[in-house]
């Protein structure tokens, strides 16, 4: 299978090249030339397979230039019990008869980003080997909190790579920041940017698109690559857990093969929900894709009106990993909805960059709304959702998952559709103890040590405190760098060229 770019369909690449490059040189995103199908027989065979075997079955369809052996090596280095604290890797938790929570936070950093970022470094190194590429790969990441740590953890000490993470200095939770600035490894850097996530993401994109700078790096045998969800190697592993969840629902006899399920995804950069869309395109019986936003509800407005308008203030919320106004992966969905019209995509993306707004055609909006539903939860509603779920089910969810559950309620109220639903749970509640505890009306003293909150949360939830969070207490801070948004390139240059 070959890959192409959303902004130039005349281009054709192998998957190994796409994974190495991250983003196309025309500014577009890579995607497969067609979406392979998976039939019910194949899904039925998966019922008695474990997560690793299911992942191999699915990755094989997309990575046709890899051997099955290579795929197996890559997958089993990622999804094992040294890295994940649950052997099922992405288990379902049944909340009630038609709602299942897909727990995507059993990896080493307790957010769903691990599902992809534990595997991406192995995919990248394998892609370099296969193509005889001796360069070192410098991974640049802009993070709204969880990607940064997951990428640092995934790439730390991986031979032939550097990893540099930019996070909004004031825009991530205390726990998220602590996770990043204590990261060990001799190829890692975490840098605070004075600005918000969009500033960090724009800065990283500008570095990727700076031809002169890239040539300078290439002269030192360094290539830039991306671990953000614009990289196809990030999206692909995310398709696996939606398919695996469907198979698990059949296995547990909650549905019959062929029954429809709806999927709810707390959304920021549109990567996770796009993976669910691809699973649907492959033939998984998914009904509605329910897109849940926080108060930064650009996507809700877009899906409801067809107008994408980023011209608004980014709000800081208690679900910081969704504080985003430019959802990069939407470009891939638009490409599909416009029947792969690269000119149209280029025009709209240019408009977004220059004017901050674009509008899709009425027939495309109709297609969009036939598959997607969207709503949002502000912070007050998010807190209420955490409390309501705990009171009714004694199950503690994090702030992002709570946004998803509130939006599911909106959906069911508005449509009366009570189809079996899978809610993607994107982070462990332990990553956001302060917000979660205040939602549960637990009194918190101002300035109370966050680690004592973990103990309280453990008492309430009955869940053990994740080891890697417990360990953070008193760990040495290793990364103290902070820069302005126009200094990011210089930071990268210093680290990659002058320091090595
Ligand atoms: C990254 C993240 C999201 C948003 O996912 P996208 O793929 O960017 O839409 C939601 N919740 C959590 C906890 C995250 O880390």
UniProtKB/TrEMBL annotation:
It holds the Pfam family Thr_synth_N. It comes from the Bacteria. Residues 100-422 form the Tryptophan synthase beta chain-like PALP domain. Its EC number is 4.2.3.1. Keywords: Pyridoxal phosphate. It comes from Caldanaerobius fijiensis DSM 17918. One of its GO terms (cellular component) is cytoplasm. GO terms for molecular function: threonine synthase activity. SUPFAM superfamilies: Tryptophan synthase beta subunit-like PLP-dependent enzymes (SSF53686). GO terms for biological process: threonine biosynthetic process. Its cofactor is pyridoxal 5'-phosphate. The modification N6-(pyridoxal phosphate)lysine is found at residue 113. Belongs to the threonine synthase family. Residues 2-79 form the Threonine synthase N-terminal domain. This is Threonine synthase. NCBIfam families: thrC. The keyword Acetylation does not apply. It is an enzyme of class 4 (lyase).
